[in-house]
Amino acid sequence: MASHANALGAPTERREGRAKVTGEALYATEYTPPGCLYAWPVTATVARGRIASLDLDAALALPDVVDVLTPESAPRLAASDDATLAVLQDAKVPHHGWPIAVVIAETIEAARAAAEAVRVTYDTEPHESVLGDDPAAAYRPEEANGGHPAERRRGEPEAAFAAAPVRVDVRYRVPPLHNHPMEPHGATANWHDGRLTVYDSSQGSDTVRSVLAELFGLPEEQVTVISEHVGGGFGSKGTPRPHVVLAAMASVHTGRPVKLTLSRRQLTELVGHRAPTDHRLRLGSDDEGTLASVIHEVTTHTSRVKEFVEQAAVPARVMYGSATSLTDHKVAALDVPTPSWMRAPGEAPGMYALESAVDELAYALDIDPIELRARNEPGQEPDSGLPFSSRHLVECLREGARRFGWADRDARPGIRREGAWLTGTGVASATYPVLVSPSRATVTAHPDGLHVVRVNATDIGTGARTVLAQVAAEALGVDVESVRTEIGSTGLPRAPLAGGSSGTASWGWAVHDASRALAGQLQRHTGPLPPDGLTAAADTKGSADQKSPYARHAFGAHFAEVAVDTDTGEVRVRRLLGVYAVGRVLNARTATSQFIGGMVMGLGMALTERGTVDPASGAFIGSDLAGYHVPAHADVPAIEAHWIDERDEHLNPMGSKGIGEIGIVGTAAAIGNAVHHATGVRFRELPLTPDRVHGGL
Amino acid sequence: MESNKGPHGGPGTTIRYAPWPRPADSPPGATGSPVTLRVNDAPVEAEVDHRTTLLDLLRERLALTGSKKGCDHGQCGACTVLVDGRRVNSCLVLAVALDGCDVVTVEGLARTEDADGDLHPLQRAFLERDAFQCGYCTPGQLCSAVGMLAEAQSGQPSVVTDPDLATDGPVPLTDDEIRERMSGNLCRCGAYPHILEAVQDVVS
Fold first, then answer.
1. Which residues of B touch A263 (CB under 8 A)?
2. What would the pLDDT profile of B184-200 be if each residue is shown by its tens digit?
3. Smallest CA–CA distance from B62 into chain A, residue
4. In this complex, which of B26, B179, B188 lies closest to A180 when CB atoms are compared?
5. Which A residues 411-470 touch B at CB under 8 Å?
6. Chain B contact present for A163, CB below 8 A
7. Given this model, what pLDDT does residue B166 score?
8. Catalytic annotation on A661?
C-alpha cells in the first residue's frame, strides 16, 4: 500500500491525451445523430428597440431549408433566473447580437445562406453602449459577482489618505475582454420519445440539465446533458448559454436532432465578456511605506438584461494591511451584451490596477517593490479580520526574486538601452480565493482489480480525469493505473461546474470520501468480490459547504522582463516567471500547464487584447480572431512556473487550492510595471499597444 | 453511405458516399459537383455542394471530426490539414476545388511514413510535453507542425530567418523560427511553451 502513497502530486500524463492528439476525442457538435439538422442563429443588428418585421420568404424559398424559428413561432419557455436565456420569446431587442431568429436546414451551407436571407426591420430607440468617464447612470449594486458586498469601509480612509505623507492617486483602465475559447459554443440537441439528449460545450452539464428541464417544463430525469470533451471555456461556458437553448428549441420544434454552433463573431455578444473596469486607486503611506489608507473604487458596466458586476475591488480586501480601507463598486446598465465570468473575474482586472498602484507607491517611496509588499503583510485578512488558513505571499515574492535574478536589478527607470530598445523588469503579486462546492461521487472496486470513479466532473483542459484518478488511487492505496474515471455526463453522480478554480477541490473531496468509504468496505469484506463489485458513494453536502473560520486564498508572485521598441512602441515580453503558493499541487505536469496558460492569457491582457464597443451600433467590433488579438506563438517567450511547498490543513482532504485562474492575475501588472521600468513612463490603460506606447514615449 | 468504413479505413478501399441531397427543382450540377480525392490514403468520391468547405466535408460528411472549426475564417489554424503535403486552413478551401488532391488530416498522421508505431513522432512528443490542455487546437497544431518541418527542410525562409545565412539547404529551426512558423495556430490554453518543446524534440 505504501508504494502508492505518492499518487497525488506525480506528473501523471493526462488520460485523454491520446484521444486528443489522434483526433478521436469528440466535442459537442461532433456527434451527428441520423437525420441531424443544422441551425444558424440570426442576430440583431441594432442596440435597442423591437423587431418591426421579419420577412422569411426568401429564406424559406432556399433549397434544404426546413423552417425558421422566430419570436412568433418558437416554443414558449418557462421563466428562469437567467434572463439571457429567454431567447425568441418576444420582439424586444436588448442589445446588438441578441438572437431574433434561428434557421433550421438540412445542411450547414443552407442554414447559413438562409440566415443571411432573413429580412428584418426594427423600431429602434436611442441607445447608450459605451462606459463614459463618470457615467451618470452608474449605481452601487447590492452585491458584486461572487456575492461580495459592493462596498466595504474600515475607519476613515479618505481622511487617512489626506493626512498621509506619501500618496498615490491614480486611475487605471481595463477594456472589455473576450474569453474566446478555441471551441466555439455549440450544442447537438436530440428531442426523441419525450426525452431531450444534449451534447453541450459546457463547463458544468448538471446546471445545463436543470435549466433546460426548467425552461422546457420537463422532469430532470428526461434530460441528459453530455460534455465529454470541452474546447476551453475560461468562464464563458460556466452556465448555460443561449446556443444550447436555441438548439433544444429547434429539436423540439422539428422532432429531429439539431446541431448549432455559434460563429466566432456571434460568440462575443452571446456568451459573456469581461466587463470594462475603470479603477481609481488611492494609496497613502508613511515614509517607511506602511499603508495608512487603501481606497479602490471600481466603475463597470452591465447589460439591461441582467446585472453582472465585475468584483474588481475585492482583492484589495485581502492583499495588504492598512489602518483604513474603502473598496467600492458602481455599475452602469448600458445597451451592451451581458458580461459574465472570464478567467479570474474580479482578481484579474482588480489586481492589475492595485499591483500597478503599489509599484507606483514603491517608486514614490524609493523602496524596492518586494520590500514594500513585505512591509504591508497583514497578520489576518484585513477586511474580515479572519486568520489566513495559509499565506505565503512574501515567500513567493522572495523565491521568485531569487529565481528571476531580482537582486541585481537597478530600480532606475528608462536607463537600459539596446539600440532602439529599452528594457526593464517588473513584479506583481497574485491572489485567488479558495472556492469549493458540494459534490457527489461513487467509487466501485471490481473483482478484476479495476476501480471505477464516477462523478459528473467536466474536463475543460485541466486534466480532471487524471487528477481524480490520482485522488482515488491515493485514498484507496492502489495503483493509479487501476483506476478508471468516468466524467462528463449527467448520467453520473451530480457535481458542480469546472469554474472558480474549484473543480478539483469539489469533485476530489467527494472522490476522496467515496474512496475512503470503499477502502473501509473492502477491509471488512471477506471472500471474492461480487460480480458487480463493491460501490461506495459520497456526498459532501454539509462538509464542503461549511463556512470556514479561516480566510482561504491562494497567492503568487509574477515577474516579467520586457523590451520596448522606441521606434515603433512595440512591447515584447522576454521572460515571464510565476511562483505560487496553492496548497498541495496534485499533478505537477498538468498544474504547470495551467499556470503557464494563465500567464499567457495575462500577457494577452497586457499587450494585445481589447474588446471595442462601437458607439454608433452598440456592437462589439473587431470581434473575431483577426480583430481581437489573443497571444500567438511568436508573442510568447520562455515562461517558468514554480510553486512552494505549502501545507494547509484547513482546505479539503487533498490539501489543495485552485490553480486554474491565479496564473492570469498578476501577469498584466508585472508586465506593465516592467514597461515603466524600461521606459520611465506609466501607461495606465490596457492593452499596451504600440500606438499608445509610442505616443507616450 | 454504402460502407461503414471511413476514409481512414485504409489504403485501397474505395468508399462511395451517397449523392448529397440536391434540390429537386434544380438541374443536376447547378449547385453541386462530384469530386474525387484521397483522404488519409483512401479514395473518396463525393457529390459536394459548391459552398462546402473542405473542413465541412471532413467534419459533417466524412465523420472526420479531428479537424476543428475554431473560427471558420482562416484566423485560428484549428482546421489545418495537409493538401498535397502543404498545410492549409481547410475552412478556407472549397471541397469542389480539390478534385484529385491528396488530403491528410490528424486522423491520418499515424499512417504517414514518419509514423513511429501507432503515433506520429509529433503526436508522441505532444503527449510527452503536455503540449495542450483542451485539445481543440491540437490537431491543427500537429498538421501545421508536419507541414512546417517540410517547409524548413526545403529551405523556405521565414520572416525571422537571417537573410545573410540563406542557403539552398534546410533552414535550422531555432526556437524563434518555430515560434514564428507556428504562429498561424492559436492556442487559447496558452500551451505554446510546451508546443515549442514538443516540436524541438522532433527536430533534434
1. 72
2. 999 999 999 999 999 99
3. A32
4. B188
5. 460-463
6. no
7. 66
8. yes
Q: Other C-beta atoms within 10 Å of A147: how many?
A: 8
Question: Which pLDDT band holds residue B30 (cuts at 50, 70, 90)?
Answer: low
What pTM value is reported for the model?
Answer: 0.96
Nearest-CA distance from A691 to chain B in Å? 22
Output the CA–CA distances (angstroms, integers) from residue A303 to A98, A185, A204, A307, A395, in the order listed. Answer: 12, 20, 24, 7, 41
Q: What is the pLDDT of residues A584-609, one digit of tens each?
A: 999 999 999 999 999 999 999 999 99
Q: How far apart are CA A353 and CA A669, in angstroms?
A: 7
Catalytic residue among A214, A297, A609, A661: A661
CATH of A143-177+273-434+549-696, one of 3.40.50.300, 3.40.50.720, 2.30.250.10, 3.30.365.10: 3.30.365.10
Per-residue pLDDT tens for A111-127?
999 999 999 999 999 99
Which residues of B, range 165-184, sit inside 8 Å of A by Cβ?
Answer: 176, 178-180, 182-184
Per-residue 3-state assignment (H helix, E strand, C coil) for A346-396: CHHHHHHHHHHHHHHHHHHHCCCHHHHHHHCCCCCCCCCCCCECCCCHHHH
The interface pTM score, or ipTM, of the predicted complex is: 0.97
Number of Cβ pairs < 8 A linking chain A and chain B: 185
- CATH superfamily of the B7-110 domain: Beta-grasp domain (3.10.20.30)
A672-683 core/surface letters (b: 16 or more CB in 10 A; e: else): bbbbbbbbeebb
Using a CB-CB distance cutoff of 8 angstroms, which residues of chain B are in contact with residue A600? 190, 192
